[in-house]
Amino acid sequence: RMLFEMEGHVVHTAIDGLDAVQLIRANPVDIVFTDLLMPRMDGLALCRELKGDTLTRGIPIVLTSGAVGEPPGAGTLFDAFLQK
Question: What is the pTM of this model?
Answer without folding.
Answer: 0.90
